[in-house]
Design goal:
47% of the residues lie in helices and 19% in strands. It is an alpha/beta fold and 165 residues long. The protein has a 5-stranded mixed β-sheet with strand order 2-1-3-4-5, sandwiched between helices. The model has no long low-confidence stretch (mean pLDDT 96).
Length: 165
C-alpha cells in the first residue's frame, strides 16, 4: 500500500466521503492524470468502498484522455492537458462512461520537470461534479512530486466531501 492510502488524514477523509455517498445512495468515479490513480487508491483502501466506487480512470497520456474520457483534441491542442477545459471534459467523460453520480478529475504538473512560465510545477486543475453542481478550480501547490500529488489527493476528497454536505 502506498503512502497515500496510509496517510491518516487522507484515510479519514476517504472514509467520510464513503459514508456520505452511502447516505445519499450515490456512486463516485475518478479521472486522474498527475495523481496516477492515487485518489482511487485512497478510496479503495476503505473497506466496503465497492458500495460507492466502481470505476477509476488513469489517463496520463493525452491519447488516453481522448479515447477513454472523450476529451477533445481541440481542447488539448488549444488549452493543454493542464487546463480548466480538459479537467471538466475528463470528469464529464468519466461520469458518462461509468454511470456514476459524482466525479473527481485532476490534471497537473507534479514535477520536478514539465513546468513552464505559464504553468509552473505545482499547477493543478481539479474538477468535481455532483448531482447539484460542477466546480473547477486551479491550484498552485508547493513541494516535491510526492508532496504535490498528496496535496491533490487530499484537496480533491476534502472538497468533494464539502460539496456533498
Amino acid at each position: 500500500m502506498s503512502e497515500f492510502a496510509n496517510n491518516p488524514s487522507i484515510n479519514l477523509i476517504a472514509k467520510q466521503v464513503g459514508q456520505r455517498l452511502r447516505c445519499i445512495n450515490a456512486k463516485l468515479t475518478t479521472a486522474e492524470s498527475c495523481t496516477g490513480g492515487g485518489i482511487a487508491e485512497a478510496i479503495t483502501a476503505i473497506a466496503g468502498s465497492s458500495q460507492w466506487f466502481e470505476y477509476g480512470y488513469i489517463t496520463y497520456a493525452n491519447k488516453a484522455k481522448e479515447r477513454l474520457l472523450k476529451v477533445t483534441k481541440e481542447s488539448l491542442a488549444t488549452d493543454g492537458a493542464v487546463s480548466e477545459q480538459v479537467v471538466e471534459q475528463m470528469a464529464t467523460g468519466a461520469l458518462q462512461s461509468s454511470g456514476a453520480d459524482c466525479a473527481i478529475s485532476v490534471s497537473g504538473i507534479a514535477g520536478p520537470d514539465g513546468g513552464t512560465p505559464e504553468k509552473p510545477v505545482g499547477t493543478v486543475w481539479i474538477c468535481w461534479i455532483t448531482p447539484k453542481l460542477t466546480r473547477v478550480k486551479k491550484y498552485q501547490l508547493q513541494g516535491d512530486r510526492q508532496a504535490v500529488r498528496e496535496q491533490v489527493i487530499k484537496i480533491s476528497l476534502q472538497e468533494l466531501l464539502h460539496q456533498l454536505n
